[in-house]
UniProtKB/TrEMBL annotation:
InterPro entries: AA_transpt_TM. GO terms for biological process: L-histidine transmembrane transport; serine transport. It holds the Pfam family Aa_trans. This is Amino acid transporter transmembrane domain-containing protein. Keywords: Membrane, Transmembrane, Transmembrane helix. One of its GO terms (molecular function) is L-glutamine transmembrane transporter activity. It is found in: Membrane. The chain crosses the membrane at residues 41-64, 70-92, 113-137. It is a multi-pass membrane protein. GO terms for cellular component: plasma membrane. Residues 39-130 form the Amino acid transporter transmembrane domain.
Amino acid sequence: KSKDSFRFKCLLCLPKTNYIAAYRNSPSNLRKHIEFEGKTSFGMSVFNLSNAIMGSGILGLSYAMSNTGIIMFLFLLICIAILSSYSIHLLLKSAGVVGIRAYEQLGKRAFGHLGKILAAVVITMHNIGEITLIYWAI
């Protein structure tokens, strides 16, 4: 690996004051981790959501409509919209009650560590499925 990738890992894992010192000194300093608090704005969240929806959605929607026809496509699109709205409603409701803002945290709170892992696996499989469909459609 190059020195730049090593330095990048150091910058992500270390407190601000020890970046360069740990890079030049012993690797034992690399074991330090810092936790980041969420400091995102509403605008950044909207941009991220829009990017995710438009990025994979635009490519997949045209392909789905060409294979299912207009009537079935509209029916499936409405079903997915209802399920997505309900999912977001549940996540926002749980965020208001107990302060949970992510599906993994919700899974951990409801079902323990296994719930967190299951939520992460489902999200990962969903993303892999989207990537596969987009690659296959192109």
